[in-house]
Write a structure and sequence with these properties.
By secondary structure, this protein is an alpha/beta fold. 38% of the residues lie in helices and 16% in strands. It is built from 13 helices and 15 strands. α4 (121-129) links the parallel β4 (112-116) and β5. The structure holds pyridoxal-5'-phosphate (PLP).
């Protein structure tokens, strides 16, 4: 049948890994990675490593093509070193799809799952659309508070939740990242209360160097070798897992491109078999073009080149984050604003003490009303930062859980989310200056 496929060859030019400082990945005639993938296997230059179009554009291969799966397994061994024998991985169409399939596989209408108090709206909507309740777990600027999770579970009414969904590195929206210690404590709670941990980790490789305002110290901080890079990464939940109760959702969206629509799921082989059966009747398989091109790229870069690429991203994002935080320090009024520079991801948040707002009392001491005022003032000044309340998780289990003591800061503190990923750095600085001005105007600090 492939005789009738109207594609004989696809080609792409990609950079050779490594980034020229501050100007992104460059391709030159002298230095580029060239992909040429043919329909027929024997025309391909990397005969045993390329996925020929006659195969990739065919139905089937739901689990993904062996070549790319082998590459990703080797990569997973290098980075996460899973601690049990029968782990495996299968291809997906990215984490959006992997999460939807995870819900379809493990939970059912009326079930409750645990999620971060502020979470990725699309992930919450996916759960709600399947009739699944999302129960918030308290967090701070460093992610889920293990003691809050523990107390929530100790006081749980009715059947315990089967799953925790967490974006544990460079969280969307808060920019928080769970420390290794918190991850260990949360994993211990998963064992104790018998739930699955789903780590949605598109930002894992956007881990950065620690922020410092000292320009000399900045120059010295980059990782140089592969070993340094790998050991600087925070341990993933899958690397802590000894019982096969972690499902890791991985994606090329933030390290190659979102439109690639290629991701993978790592977990216990028996659980992955369930996804496979579901994928057979839903996605069938990731796009054949994507499979051939992504595989072709990774095979040419090799494990070592891919690590070089990720090391380059680490330096690029560190620089972007530094520029954003420098601007926050310079333009945001420290009288009312606090923040923790993110160590991973694309997002940063600035926390504002609304109790110092002149109209706090007049607005009924309602933090969301003050947030709205600041948001509108930001728009008026020409800068959009997203109010934290837009990401607040709401959910009620059935039967409802006991009320636990509320964090007293919830009444007086709000946050806004910004990103340094999407705009040129000059515009970012101008935008942050405008938002800083909006806060000063609102708080009478101009
Ligand atoms: N999960 C989180 C937490 C995200 O922030 C995003 C993208 O913004 C996604 C998943 C989407 O991932 P993918 O493009 O792999 O579907």
């Amino acid at each position: 049948m492939s005789d009738y496929f109207p594609f004989d060859k696809i080609t792409a030019d990609a950079p050779t890994p490594g980034f020229a400082n501050g100007i992104g990945a460059q391709i030159t005639e002298a230095d580029k990675t060239v992909l040429e993938i043919y329909k027929k296997a024997d025309a391909n230059t990397k005969k045993n490593l390329d996925v020929e179009l006659a195969r990739s554009l065919q139905y089937g291969f739901t689990e993904g093509h062996t070549e790319i799966l082998d590459f990703l397994k080797e990569h997973t061994e290098l980075i996460h070193k899973p601690a049990y024998a029968d782990w495996d991985l299968i291809a997906s169409v990215g984490n959006t799809e992997s999460w939807d399939s995870t819900l379809r596989t493990f939970v059912t209408r009326g079930d409750s799952i645990l999620v971060e108090e502020y979470s990725f709206s699309s992930a919450l909507e996916t759960a709600h659309a399947q009739g699944v309740n999302t129960i918030p777990v308290a967090m701070d600027t460093e992610g889920i508070l293990p003691e809050a999770l523990s107390s929530l579970l100790d006081n749980w009414v009715g059947p315990k939740p089967k799953m925790l969904y967490t974006i544990c590195t460079g969280q969307n929206p808060t920019g928080s990242s769970l420390s290794a210690q918190r991850r260990r404590e949360i994993y211990a709670l998963a064992v104790k209360h018998d739930f699955i941990i789903v780590e949605d980790e598109p930002y894992y490789f956007l881990q950065m160097e620690t922020y410092t305002s000292d320009l000399e110290a900045r120059k010295a901080r980059h990782v140089h070798s592969h070993e340094e890079f790998v050991s600087a990464l925070v341990p993933s939940f899958i690397s802590l897992d000894t019982e096969g109760r972690v499902i890791r959702l991985d994606s090329f969206s933030k390290v190659l491109a979102p439109g690639v629509r290629f991701g993978w799921i790592v977990g216990q082989a028996k659980l992955l078999e369930r996804y496979l059966r579901l994928h057979e009747v839903t996605i069938q398989c990731p796009s054949g073009f994507s499979s051939s091109l992504v595989n072709g790229l990774l095979q040419r870069w090799g494990q070592s080149g891919y690590l070089d690429w990720l090391i380059g991203l680490r330096a690029e994002y560190t620089h972007k984050r530094d520029v954003a935080i420098d601007a926050v320090v310079k333009y945001f009024p420290s009288e009312v604003v606090s923040f923790l520079p993110p160590v991973a991801g694309m997002f940063f948040t600035t926390t504002i003490d609304v109790s110092k707002h002149p109209k706090y009392k007049e607005l009924g001491e309602d933090p969301v009303k003050v947030e709205e005022q600041i948001y509108n003032q930001g728009i008026e000044q020409g800068c959009l930062m997203i109010p934290g309340s837009w990401f607040k998780t709401q959910g009620q289990s059935n039967p409802p859980q006991k009320e636990l003591p509320e964090n007293p800061e919830a009444k007086t503190h709000i946050f806004f989310r910004g990103t340094y990923a999407a705009v040129p750095l000059d515009d970012l600085v101008i935008g942050l200056e405008k938002f800083g001005r909006a806060i000063k105007i609102e708080f009478g600090l101009e």
